[in-house]
Design brief:
The protein has about 325 residues and is α+β, with helices and mostly antiparallel strands. Helices cover about 30% and strands about 10% of the residues. It has a six-stranded mixed sheet.
């Protein structure tokens, strides 16, 4: 479909990225997404970290930490929001000695978030901070510890009369490095995807190279494809549909689902094409247009724009500069 909505500019390529797997693609601009790539500062990294490794590291550092056993929460929220979970653990270590020191120990706030915001549980704290880092820092280009520090722990802050914030980057970086992270590199992260998602956002194959990218995005959800190419040209809004067989450089899939069951799956696609700042996009949905690799991708969910998209997720693609 061709429908007005939020448009993200085409990103610059990242040196060495090549054509990465869909779930391991990153935008090299302020909206950082998913990249299975290790490299210098500014490019996101991968990690062999798992929940057990995180728990073991925390147990070694602080045997009495209430965060021990929550390695899975750090891992899950990190992956969900495109943040290296080791960076989350490192920040918690510096800010509260893993939930055992300072005011945060009594209010389930291991990160000094707020500061001094009380949470109902450590799990809620981890989820909020991971999401906040993704949307308030990574999505704004602050994807390294040194870039995060001036906002997270600014020098001269009223709550830091002794100037401890000056050591924030070094201290957090030391813990991060001890877990195998690069303290000077990007903390944007997602695990590598399956090989069948290779070349996902770049033109390849039929329909002007748009079919395989759309199908790779669809496979991320595991949902049934209820519609692909068809003879009807116009959408309910009067635009030319990416589904139309006469659109030679377009392709689209409709994926059968309804809210709220489809919210997380729509968010998965939104994060893949738009970055970790869209990790919760599916809860509200709408129209998301992203230009990437010579293709305009469009995601429609929970909207009547272009038709009823409350009973399916629409993912369409059209080559830029092509007018059917």
């Amino acid at each position: 479909m061709s429908t007005n909505g939020q448009i993200l500019p085409r990103p610059l390529a990242i040196a060495g990225a090549g054509v990465a797997a869909l779930l391991s693609l990153v935008v090299g601009l302020p909206v950082m997404a998913l990249l299975g790539l290790s490299g210098p500062a500014g490019s996101a990294g991968t990690s062999a970290v798992d929940a057990g490794t995180l728990d073991a590291w925390m147990a070694k550092q602080v045997p009495g930490s209430p965060l021990i056993g929550l390695g899975g929460d750090f891992l899950r929220e990190g992956e969900r929001n495109g943040i290296d979970p080791r960076a989350l653990v490192a920040i918690a270590m510096h800010e509260s000695v893993l939930g055992t020191a300072g005011s945060g120990a009594a209010i389930h706030n291991a990160f000094g978030w707020g500061p001094a915001i009380a949470f109902s549980s450590w799990q809620a704290n981890i989820a909020t901070v991971a999401r906040g880092l993704a949307q308030g820092y990574i999505a704004r280009g602050r994807d390294t510890l040194s870039a995060i520090q001036p906002v997270w722990a600014p020098l001269g802050a009223a709550n830091d009369p002794t100037g401890l914030n000056s050591a924030w980057t070094t201290a957090v970086g030391r813990y991060y490095a001890d877990m195998g992270g690069d303290p000077s590199g990007s903390i944007a992260f997602v695990p590598a995807a399956a090989g069948d998602a290779q070349a996902a956002l770049c033109p390849v194959g039929p329909w002007g190279g748009t079919e395989q990218p759309v199908e790779a995005l669809a496979r991320l959800t595991g949902l049934p494809v209820t519609s692909a190419k068809r003879t009807r040209q116009l959408t309910a809004s009067g635009g030319t549909s990416d589904h139309w067989v006469g659109c030679a450089k377009c392709f689209a899939n409709d994926l059968g689902t309804t809210p709220p069951a489809g919210d997380a799956l729509a968010s998965r696609i939104a994060s893949a094409i738009g970055g970790p700042g869209y990790a919760d996009w599916g809860r509200t949905g709408g129209v998301l247009n992203v230009e990437r690799c010579g293709i305009r991708f469009q995601l429609l969910w929970r909207t009547y724009v272009g038709g009823n998209h409350w009973n399916h997720i629409h993912i369409g693609a059209r080559r830029l500069e092509y007018a059917p």
